[in-house]
Amino acid sequence: MPDRLLGPWQFQSGGVVASDVRLARGAGAVFDAVGRLIRPSQDCSVSYGYALNLNEVVSLTGAGYRERIICRVDPGWMPGLEGVHSYSRVGEWESIDGGFVL
pTM score, two decimals? Predict the structure, then answer.
């Protein structure tokens, strides 16, 4: 397996990242956070883009891909917010978007 996020890449049998509707849909690019790889994902179990998960990638080895949720953002943190769609991070800048019912 690569020791860098940018590769070189190799096929890994059984390399499913996620198949659960609460974790599978990507919600932004994988990023490095002080040596930890973080994969943002959407929880679409209630509705499309309902909540946001930040998942730490804990294994990229021959044993298979594994991750664990380290943070969850539900829409209840802001009045009227119906969903938390995606997260992006570049340097010191962060962006999060969500949806409101009009």
Answer: 0.80
